[in-house]
Predict the structure.
Amino acid sequence: MSADQTLAFDPDCHIFSGCGFPAPGLHTFLYEPIATIGGFDFTKPMLLALISTLVVVGFFWAAFNKPKMVPGKVQMIGEAGYDFVRRGIVYEIIGKKDGEKYVPLMVSLFFFVWIMNLWSIIPLAQFPVTSLIAFPAALALIVYVLWISLTFKKHGFVGGWKNILGYDKNLGPILPVVMVLEFFSNLIIRPFTHAVRLFANMFAGHLLIVMFSLATWYLMNGLGFVYAGASFVMVIVMTAFELFIQAVQAYVFVLLASSYVQGALSEHH
Amino acid sequence: MNALLLAQAEEPQNPLVPHLDELVIGLIAFVIVFGFLAKKLLPNINKVLEQRREAIEGGIEKAEAAKIEAQSVLEQYKAQLAEARHEAARLRQEATEQGTALIQEMKAEGQRQRDEIIALGHAQIEADRKAAATALRQDVGKLATDLAGKLVGESLEDHARQSRTIDRFLDELEEKAEAAR
């Protein structure tokens, strides 16, 4: 655990010592600034976000800066990851011809999100940056802007609105209802859920790990040691589970982004 | 520790409301990633992947070409082999024919030589016989005349020389012998 989190509660607080369980909550996600530069508070999650940038760029620099026909180990791994997003997501959802243009965006999104998620279980970091809504929101915003601009670019002003509102003459009298629903669903709820899906998963995962970690520590007193063992097993289990969820959520985020782009490019939404 | 306990004391914000500063940092962080990947690193690897694909396909094409060439060479070789076999068979046939003809010729030649030798022998024998017959006729005539002269005197000799009686007699004998043969 990082120093901050370990110290987020009184280390001497244990069960049977007249001290209540310091349950994690929203305060778990609040960080005092590491540094304040000209009124700008720089916090640990921001640092982790920037390190994520370094990690992703650094890795792909090592892998692809001087690529060879016969790849080395790093290049091979990089190619596998690149191919996974390119073939496994973009080509599958958008198609090879239209999708090629959006491969760099989706590859960047996938690895950036994944590394930001991954901090959750990295010692000392131990905080998924994406559990702060601002980070998923920033990425969802990029996808949202891309989606809307692509829609109008492809279909024109009227066509774009028809595409967004799901206009279909065959619907007859219920068309206005559908259009209102689609308006909210596509323009307002969609970007929100896109960001929140990632945020909530990482938020909940982090909360669980912190909760079991704190409980393990808290229970280490007298008879409580028995339960502390069980709680510690849960920490291990949740950590392994998070490792899985982190990748899945990065995948889902990019999958949705691709399907939005595909929706903007297709004739019928 | 104090810092965080202080944070704890603050009223926690709604977790669904993004902090603007975090949003900005997030955007910057992502744009840097995207910039490097989209402008430099992914085009780099795409070039190499394309080259590799071409190299592999080129290799396949080369192998295909080599296979086709090998096929044609094999066909050519087979054709040549068949031709050579055919030629050999033809030569053998020819040789057999020539051999047969040669044998025939030699047989004929042998026959001819044999006939010649035989004919020559016959001619020789005939000539010898004729010579012998001529010599014999003279001797016989002379002996008979001598004998007759001795029997009737010596004067017959000149007369006999002029006379052709003996010759006629011997011719008759000869004719008889010829007829009997």
Observations:
- Residues 21-180 of chain B form one domain.
- The radius of gyration of chain B is 66 Å.
